[in-house]
Amino acid sequence: MAKQKQQQPKPAADAAPPPREFKTAHSPWFTYASMVTLFSLCPPFVILLWYTVVHADGSVARTYEHLRDHGILEGLKAIWPMPTVLAGKIILAFALFEAALQLLLPGKRFEGPISPAGNVPVYKANGLLAYAVTLVTYLSLWWFGIFNPAIVYDHLGEIYSALVFGSLVFCLCLYIKGHVAPSSSDSGSSGNAFIDFYWGMELYPRIGKHFDIKVFTNCRFGMMSWAVLAVTYCIKQYEMNGRVADSMLVNTALMLIYITKFFWWESGYWCTMDIAHDRAGFYICWGCLVWVPSTYTSPGMYLVNHPVNLGPQLAISILLAGILCIYINYDCDRQRQEFRRTNGKASVWGKAPSKIVASYQTTKGETKTSLLLTSGWWGFSRHFHYVPEILAAFFWSVPALFDHFLPYFYVLHLTILLLDRAKRDDDRCSTKYGKYWKMYCNRVPYRVVPGIY
């Protein structure tokens, strides 16, 4: 395969680009209904989730009764905490700390995949180091009595409330930036202001030359806050009970192992749909700034006040099963990444890989080729890596057992999210590769779950 010229994202042209075509994976009616529903329901759901877990004993029925007795609007208003100065200081301190680590820590140069406009984004791969520094700093602040992480839990509602509103303003700034100062030629308007705000204007928005906004929102704020909150919940339970239940230890260990895997493989994430194809708007950026720290951490949030004693045998069994799923998820991504890095020459499970050589045309009319792996994990299904990811989420949720549904909301959400992403990715690849994608689907007929879907 011909090697592309390596470059930073090109500056946008002086003239405004023409409106870009907005393609949907679903019917237009379903797509617009989904956008309006998510935009209107996700912010209040974050607060309702926090309130139910922390103040309603994890009972959806109790929260429902509150809203029924007071009316939805008045009931929501009564439980919605106002953002506070303390919450703002905590968020700002964390954001500035992560931004500084992103800019200042050393890291290898990494080039992302070539964009539709022919740009090759360049990153500094220092996520794993930033992750280690973040956890060591956070635990040290607690250990030496400088800052008590329990304060974060005690003001969690105010923090989420501040994130809900502050991140909406952040996304509005991204929308304005996309109109007046796009960072590269991979930008443009669809001609619909709501779509532009929801899906985003820019593929690679940056501040200056080196600060990549999507890396910050998706990785350094979203994923890092997930890890920090997981540790926070452990510390809070320890301060309340004088010990940490084995259920919390299993939950926290599995989440931290998963997040460690993410940062170990962060450069691979930069080649995925989130970074390389989805633009920076409400869907991605607000989701990572608010949805990730609130819903992704919800099993641990629930366990703070609901410690479960699993016993050594069950705890170890759940832990090992979760670790196995995380490893398979990692190995799936590693296998494909190595296949691409060696231009299809890497062995897969000790054998020469089975592959399809697919050609496609760029937006400039140039003919390029890609290799589609059809063996190893990728011979089971076209998105097999989603299966162990969903199972891993189940295993770090199941320590809560089954008294309430909410600890499993993240598993349900993740399943819907990944199945939808698989469909969107298949539709995009079908458009890109045409007959070669049909050949690929014939060879690997299942989309996600082998033998089922």
Look at the structure and give the mean pLDDT.
89
Count of discrete alpha- or pi-helical segments spanning 4 or more residues? 18
How many angstroms separate the termini?
Answer: 32 Å
Rg result: 22 Å
Helical coverage, percent range: 55-70%
Secondary-structure class: mainly alpha
Work out the strand percent. Answer: 5-15%
Q: Main β-sheet: number of strands, strand sense, barrel status?
A: 2 strands, antiparallel
**What order do the SSEs take from the amino end to the carboxyl end, as H and E?**
HHHHEEHHHHEEHHHHHHHEEHHH
Q: What sort of overall outline do the alpha carbons produce when their principal axes are compared?
A: globular
Uncertain residue segments: 1-19
Please supply descriptive tags for the structure shown above.
globular; 18 helices; 453 residues; 6 strands; mainly alpha; two-stranded antiparallel ribbon; 61% helix
Protein model, in words:
With 453 residues, this protein is mainly α. It contains 18 helices and 6 strands. The strands form 3 sheets. It has a two-stranded antiparallel ribbon. A hairpin with a 3-residue loop joins β3 and β4. α1 packs antiparallel against α7 (156-180), α2 (60-70) packs across α3 and α10 (246-264) packs antiparallel against α16. Mean pLDDT is 89; it is low at 1-19.
Topology of this protein?
Blueprint: H1 28-55, H2 60-70, H3 72-79, H4 85-104, E1 108-111, E2 122-125, H5 127-143, H6 150-154, H7 156-180, H8 193-199, E3 206-207, E4 211-212, H9 213-241, H10 246-264, H11 266-269, H12 273-276, H13 282-296, H14 298-305, H15 312-341, E5 355-361, E6 367-373, H16 386-397, H17 409-433, H18 435-443
Antiparallel strand pairs: 1-2, 3-4, 5-6
Helix pairs in contact: 1-7, 1-13, 1-14, 2-3, 4-7, 4-9, 5-9, 7-13, 9-10, 9-13, 9-14, 10-14, 10-15, 10-16, 15-16, 16-17, 17-18
